[in-house]
Amino acid sequence: MTSLFAAFDIATGEVISELHRRHRAVEFKKFLATIDKNVPDELDVHIVCDNYGTHKTPEINAWLARHPRFHMHFTPTGSSWINQVERFFGLITDKLIRRGVHTSVPALEADIRNWIKNWNDDPKPFRWIKTPDEILNSLQKYLTRISDAEH
After folding, report:
1. Are 112 and 77 within 8 A, CB to CB?
2. pLDDT tens track for 102-111
3. Which residue spans within 1-151 are E strands per DSSP?
4. Distance CA 137, CA 129 (A)
5. How remote is the C-alpha of 86 from its chain's centroid?
6. Is pLDDT above 80 for 22?
7. Handedness of CA 51, 42, 126, 23 (dihedral sign)
8. Model-level pTM?
9. How far is it, in rounded angstroms, from Cα 11 to Cα 16?
10. pLDDT tens-digit map of 33-73
11. Whether residue 151 has pLDDT greater than 60
């Protein structure tokens, strides 16, 4: 098993990534340090995360307190679609992981690293194709439908 940590630059489409065999606060803190080294010092860093416990431990909170340019934003439960890195994870899953034959974890990790390197050679930011009004109308229809459903 391997865990892919990825930071998606929504302006350029570039990805900063690391692979770790575990998904704990220790690994997440290492990844935050990697982001810190790769993002110019004069820029603030806004990270959109899910509510996974690893992102909120005392160790991570202490690291963030020492790095005030980092700002954490957490998506509501069930709203990971808001987080563009989740779309990136979907692409890598569809284009590489489901299509590939990986005989070992190191082979899988090498393929992931190569895929991300190729992505970063010609990165593309994601673009919303619907207007905010279209998204909000769709959401309103969905909320009306589920709130009126009989249970």
Report:
1. no
2. 899 999 999 9
3. 3-8, 15-20, 45-49, 70-74
4. 14
5. 5
6. yes
7. negative
8. 0.78
9. 13
10. 999 999 999 999 999 887 777 888 999 999 999 999 999 98
11. no
Instruction: Give DSSP secondary structure letters for 94-108.
Output: IIIITT---SSHHHH
Amino acid in position 17: S
Cβ-proximal residues to 61 (8 Å cutoff; 6+ apart), any chain: none
CA dist 64 to 25, 60, 92, Å?
Answer: 12, 6, 29
Residue 25: both structure tokens together:
């606060």
Q: How far apart are CA 55 and CA 124, in angstroms?
A: 27
Q: Residues 103-140: pLDDT tens digits?
A: 999 999 999 999 999 999 999 998 878 888 998 898 88
**HSE of 91 in the Cβ direction (CA atoms, 13 Å)?**
16
| Residue 65 in tokens | 């307190």
The reported pLDDT for the residue numbered 83 is 74
Q: What is the distance between the alpha carbons of residues 77 and 27, in angstroms, rounded to a whole number? A: 23
Among 114, 7, 108, 98, smallest CA distance to 55 is for 7
